[in-house]
Structure formats: C-alpha cells, structure tokens
Amino acid sequence: MRSGQRVGAFGVVAGILTLVGPLVAYLGLVPPIVGFVLFAGGGILAVVLALVAIVRLVRGRGLNLGGALSLLVALGFVGLIVAGRDHPRINDFTTDTNDPPALTFAATLPSNHGRDHSNGPLVSV
Q1: What is the Cα–Cα distance from 116 to 80, expressed in whole angstroms?
Q2: Domain ranges of the chain
Q3: pTM, to two decimals
C-alpha cells in the first residue's frame, strides 16, 4: 500500500471514529468515557493526518478522499477546542467528602454572583 493510500485509509478511520464515538455513547452502547476516547482519538489522528495531507499538497502529490476528510475533521475538532477556550475548566472537584474545598472558580463567574456556593452535606454514590 502506498503512502498516500495509507494516509487516505487512516483519514477515513479518523473521520469515522470522530463521528461514531459520541454516537455510540449517546445510544448507550458504550460508557461515555469510551465514546469520548474514540472521539478524541479520531480528532487527534485527523489533526496529524491533516498536517500530512497539507505537506502532500505542498509537494504536489494531490489530495485523496481520506486526506480531504482528515482536513475537514481536523478543522471541526480544532474548532471545538477553540470554541471551548472561554469556558471554565472542570477544576472544582474533590474526593475528600469529609472536608471538601470551596468552589472557588465557580464563585468568580459573573453568572454565579450572589449565589451560595457553600458545600452542603455530600452524598456518597
């Protein structure tokens, strides 16, 4: 199998993983974390393959279906990352149910101004 064919095949796989991961998690066929790993793995693979596809284009070797698909998936994947940059990171969590930390970041958000962020009784699951 030639290099371009491999890039194309992996590009199709990346596109499928990125779409199928969230779908199978939504349908309850796999746990949500597995769906996320499939999505993230496909997205990361697409970004790498998109870079390879760009190099192939610059060298005049053309763009096959998998290369084009990896470019589209990579654009969407990076677009989601960029769109989420203004959202807070999930950093207010604890495993210490006896003395949990205060929700410091949540209290700084304008939408939470004036809300009570004290920790009530914690429920173990």
Answers
A1: 31
A2: 3-83, 87-117
A3: 0.66
